[in-house]
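Researcher: Can you fold this with oxa(dethia)-CoA in place?
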Amino acid sequence: MDGPGSWAVVPHFSMPKATPSQSARLVRRVKISAIGCYVPPKKLTNADLEKMVDTNDDWIFARTGIRTRHIVEPGVATSDLSVEAAKLVLEQRNLKGSDIDTIIVCTVTPDMMFPSTACLVQDRLGATGAWGFDLIAACSGTVYGLTTGAQMIASGAQERVLVIGADTMSKIVDYQDRATCVLFGDAAGAVLLEPSEDPDLGLLDYINEVDGSGGHMLYMPAGGSRLPASPETLAARMHYVHQDGGQVFKYAVRKMSEVCVEILRRNGFTPEDVDILLLHQANGRIISAVADKLGMPENKAINIIEEYGNTTGATIPLAAREVLNNGRLKKGDLVVMCAVGAGLTAGAALWRWAY
Ligand code: UT7
């Protein structure tokens, strides 16, 4: 058996479009070794939203599956949630900040445009040897972050990569727009990647995709170099999430089903082989529809949206934490993570769970 940090020929670890010589190159298997999540205590219920916009609990629950979301107090930022989640991961593995090589914060709500949230987190964790960066892929961010971090370890360049999916969506949601404000919440999920001592456990494969032609379906129009903040952009409420919900819904169901089927097919599995399906939590109806298209029992597709809403970068770590805590996710389970988000972005990662 290979020890941590050792090298092994793992031809199965395939990159999309890899040539035979590329996929047979020397790589290390990479595992998730810890997950820690932080959810702010303050709840925003459907009843609270009824007082803010023309909506009601029946509509929200029937159309989305959401009853509550957690949101931060004024003054709390994405790095604050990230640091709390990261501390839990370090505690679980009995590590210090200085044991981390790389920090990737997957977010669309950085504390500020620069420095990156990863730099702020690095400082507060005392991760003195780490480098890091923010990764913008919206709801697919954590799948992109995990697969990016895994490559760093697989190549032998790094030993421990901390991937944090974190968002304070309450800071960019328009609480006058009933079509979006009912959907989102705030949270952070930190995931530690390390070399796998067992070559059969860890990340087996991934697929990441971008279709920029759908960028207009879900975006924040102002605040970047195209439309810097101005009195006009503020007056036009352009610093908030704008979404064509129906189009995103259809894309999410189609694309998540497609990438799940493809990643299973090319690794010789069928949906029946999957123990746990960790889908991005955007809408309970999307989760049910994807499970249905895959012909999977709905209870394998983890659904925690009722309590948290859509927390963008944090949804998949939160869902993983739920099944780890209730004992449903066990070592050796076949797990698919899959997400779709603004961009449009999509990603799937196939794991043999390692702890
Ligand atoms: O994580 C990023 C990816 N994002 C997503 O995956 C979100 C995908 N989209 C969705 O989840 C759904 O499209 C929504 C939940 C956003 C909307 O649900 P829908 O079933 O697609 O509703 P709709 O937009 O077709 O609207 C149906 C009706 C409309 O009224 P009319 O035009 O039929 O009179 C809306 O104005 O529901 C109305 N409506 C609401 N009514 C009460 C929209 N939002 C609300 C609301 N409360 N909050």
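Model: Folded with oxa(dethia)-CoA in place. Residues 1-26 have pLDDT under 50 and may be disordered.
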